[in-house]
Each structure stands twice: as structure tokens, then as C-alpha cells.
């Protein structure tokens, strides 16, 4: 890959464009190829298609430069998360969110019920409760902002306390992204991404990633991928890297839209509560401002309406898609409690809103007509 740059001298906006490129040479390619090989001649560093791929390497280099740690990509975000939990011996104690991303929470509940792990489910946004849970634990599994309630976790204090107590610390950085915070720089051991979301940004692939600056930990995670088989397809990796080129621009526009829409929703009498750390009125605003470089593009809000009306509202939008993903160029919303595995701490009338890059007035007009279609006044 291209080694011409001193990456520390470049801003993230430049890193997403310049990283993961082939080495400069006469008539050389600007973009890495899609490497469609399962078999390699002997004697090289790859060995076999389950061990490595040129297309993976280009994407891994880019995420590594953004997160400040060596990266492995996986077939999905859940595959990456599963590899983290596989590090722990049977019966190990882990601290995790009681209301976090439902895929993670559901997996941890299954591991807890089968006694493979002992999970302390806590409110990670409650600093005292989280610090009290660290004693006797082997891992802290953190997520901030927490999906879908967008509570901000005091990462600097909790990571520091976890490391002081000898805990491994993993942080799901999917919602904040490396543009807004870098958990490895705060002392975390592993950073997790659903590359499906903001990094690739076009709702057309499934990928995950793990980044670490601990070489021994990296080797263990690589072995887990190698023999667990949760490998990425080269075409998906190539698409993700292409999507990453516009990541900074997408996040800037989505974040601007999110702040404007959060302000409008906060002043709307049909809404009982808006959750967005970018609002000065949000209880997590000052904490987020103290260590984050922005507030992200996710809003959650509670509608003064019945569950049936909220479902109808989500189904009535025309520009905003009613779906269960986030982080793409298109705006997506959904009523989160429609999922039986969602935390019961999430209100039934809460809509999670991933704000895209569309015209903000068009988005607001679509919200208005959705309100009207559901007869919410």
C-alpha cells in the first residue's frame, strides 16, 4: 500500500481519501483491485484465501489509520463482536450495557444463560453504577453513544478505571465513528465497528472490523477470524473502501441535518422528548462536548401518540425509509420496540432516526406529512 504520507500530519478528512491506495508507480492503479483469489502460490505472506486478501488489506489499512490501531475486517459487525467475546475463558465476567445495541445484548444474554460468560448488565451512562461493576470483571464492553437511546458514556473515566483494575476494554464505536472519537487513544484495547454503517455508508454490504494497538491481542483476533471463518468477501471490502472515500463529507452533511432536525423536533408539540447530544438541553451535551469532536447523525425521539400511530407514521414516510439500519446516505427511521429483543428500557413510542444527506427541508416536509398521515396532532 501507499507509504508516501506521514499520516499523523493529515486530518481525518484527508485520511479517508488518501489511505488504502496502491503504491505510487508509473501507470500504477489509483485504486486497489478486487482480488478474486482463494489460492496463492506458496512462499508469500498470505498463504490461503481464508488468511488474507489484497482487498481486505486496503480497507484494513484505512480503518487502521483512522482508529490508530491495526485492523481486521470480518464478515459482519456481529462476527467481529463474537470474536471479541471468544477471547474470554468460560465463566469470565463481563460488564455491558443493559440497553445497548440489541444484537450485542441478545448474544450476551444467550452466553450468560448458558453460563459461558457471566454478564453484569448495567446502565453504562451511570458512572457510579458502571465503576462499581468493574471489581471482579475481566472485560468492559462499552458502547457510546448507546444505541438507540443515545446516552453518552464517560469513556475517559470508565476506560481509565477499567484498565487500572486489570480489565480488558472494548468499545463499539459504530455510532460515533473515528471522526468523532478514538477510544484506543483513550486507553481502550479494542475498537469495534459495524462497517456496514457509516464507514461504507451506502447500505449495500455487511462487514465488521476490530482495531487494536496490542500486537498479541491482534494475533489472537486474527487466529479467531482465520479458524472461525468469519471472513469478508473481496468485493464487499472493495465497496466499503470506495464508500469510505466520501465518509467525512457524508458525516458532515448528516450531522448538520441532524442538529437542525433535532432542534425542530424539540420545539414540536407532538414530540414529548428528543434525544440528541448536540442539543444544549440534552443531559449528555456537556459530557459529549468534553471528549467528542461532534455529536453524530442519530436522533431518537418520542411521539405523543399510540404505538399504532407511531408505526403508521414510520410507514407513511416517502423520503425517509422505514427500516432497521443506520449510517447510510439515505435517512432511515423505525420504531425500535417493534423488535422483541429490544430492551424494555426503550419507550414503545420511540423512533430511532438515522439522518442522511438529503435536503433538510425535504426531510422536514416528509416528517410533517408522516405526522399528518398518522393523524398525530
Q: What is the fold's blueprint, element by element?
A:
Layout (H helix, E strand, L loop, with lengths): L11 H7 L35 H14 L2 E5 L2 H9 L6 E6 L4 H12 L3 E6 L4 H7 L5 E5 L11 H10 L3 E5 L4 H4 L9 E5 L13 E5 L2 H14 L5 H11 L2 H20 L4 E5 L9 H7 L6 E6 L3 H10 L4 E2 L9 E4 L14 E5 L5 H14 L4
Parallel strand pairs: 2-3, 2-4, 4-5, 5-6, 10-11
Antiparallel strand pairs: 1-7, 6-7, 8-9, 9-12, 11-12
Uncertain ranges = none
| Global geometry | globular
Ends apart, CA distance between termini: 57 Å
**What class do helices, strands and sheet pairing give?**
alpha/beta
What is the string of helix and strand elements?
HHEHEHEHEHEHEEHHHEHEHEEEH
C-alpha Rg (nearest Å): 21 Å
**Helical amount:** 25-40%
Please, how many helices? 13
Question: What would the average pLDDT be, to the nearest integer?
Answer: 97
Largest sheet: 7 strands, mixed
Tally of strands = 12
- What spatial order of strands do you see in the largest sheet? 1-7-6-5-4-2-3
**Percent range for β-strand residues:** 15-25%
Which tags fit this structure?
16% strand, 377 residues, five-stranded mixed beta sheet, alpha/beta
Would you mind describing this structure in some detail?
The chain is α/β, with parallel strands linked by helices. Helices cover 37% and strands 16% of the residues. It has a seven-stranded mixed sheet, sandwiched between helices. It has a five-stranded mixed sheet with strand order 8-9-12-11-10, with helices on one face. Helix 1 packs antiparallel against helix 2, helix 2 packs parallel to helix 9 (234-244) and helix 12 crosses helix 13. The longest helix is centred in the C-terminal third of the chain and has 20 residues, at 247-266. 49% of the residues are buried.
